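[09:14] KT: can someone run the structure on this one? pasting the chain below
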Amino acid sequence: MTPAEMEARLASRLKMRHLVLLRMIAEHGSLTRVSHRMATSQPAVTHALAELESMFGGALFHRSARGMAPTALGELVIARARAMLEDLGHWVRDIEAVGLGRAAHLQVGVIPFVSGRLLAAAIGQTRPQGLQVTVTIHEGTSDRLLERLRQHELDCVIGRASAVLDMQGLEHEVLYHQEPRLITHRRLAARLGRQPLAWQELARLEWILGARQTPMREQITDFFLRAGVAPPAPFVESLSSKLIGELIAANEKAVSIVPADIAEELARIAGVGIVAHCFGWTLPPITLFQRTEGARYEEQSLFVAALRAVCARQAAAQAGDAA
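[09:31] RB: done, C-alpha cells below
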C-alpha cells in the first residue's frame, strides 16, 4: 500500500473514538478495564481494536497474562493519537477564547528563570486583529517541557539550550543570553561586596539551589570544583524564583546564584541584595523551541514575533549596561 493509499484509508475510516480507545488501552493495559471506563461491552472494544489493527496493517499491542503492551507500531500510533487528542483540547480552548471576545488560547512552556516582565510584555503585544490572546503558562525544566511539546501539549517552549536535550522533531532559536548574579540578604551582600569573593567562605553559607542536573545547578557545581572547593550541599532545593527571593530576604546566611535579570526582579520584589561580582561565565542561552512539523496559526506566529522583539530589546539594554 502506498502512503497516499494509507492516508486515504485513515481519512475515511479513522474516527475520534478510535483515538480515545488507543489512549485508554495504553493507560489501562486491559480491554476489560477499558470497557468499564468507556461504559461499553468488551466485545465492542475488541471489535474496535480489530478495526484499528486492520487500518494500520499490523498488531498494535502484545497480549500476555500481565496485560497489553504496545508493539513498536503501537507506540508510534499511540503517540500520534495522543497528539491529535491534545490538539482537539487546544481547539476547544481556542473556541472558548473566541467566545469571550479574545483570540486563540496559547499553551506556553517556560523554565522558572525567565523574566516575568519579558513574558508579560510579549503576551501584551500579541494582538491578532486587535484582540488579546489568552495564555496558559506551564513551568518546568527544559527536558520535561520539550517532551510535552513533542506530545502537542504545548505550542512552544521558552527553555535553555543544552547539548544533552533530545531535539528530535524540534527546531530552536536563541533568544538572549543571561549572566549569573550572586544574591544574598542585603546586609550580607553589602559585606561580600567590599572584598573579593572567597569560595571557601561562600561554601559555608546556606545555599538555595535548583534541582540536580539542571544547567544552573551544574554550572554552580563546576565553578566550585574549578576553585578547588567542595560544592555546598543545598539548604533548600527549589526552581521557584519567588520562593528563592523570599527565603534569601528572610535569612542573613542564605545565598543563591540566579540570572541577572531574575536577580534584578527579586531585588525589586523581595528586597534581596545583589553582590557586584562578574563570574566570567554565561549560562546556556534562553531559547525558543517549536515543533518542526505541523501548521502554526497566526496567534502563535505573532506571539513568537513579539517575543523576539522583547528579547532583542533586553539584549540591547544588557549590551548598553555592559558598555
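[09:33] KT: thanks! The chain has a mean pLDDT of 85.
[09:34] RB: yep, looked fine to me
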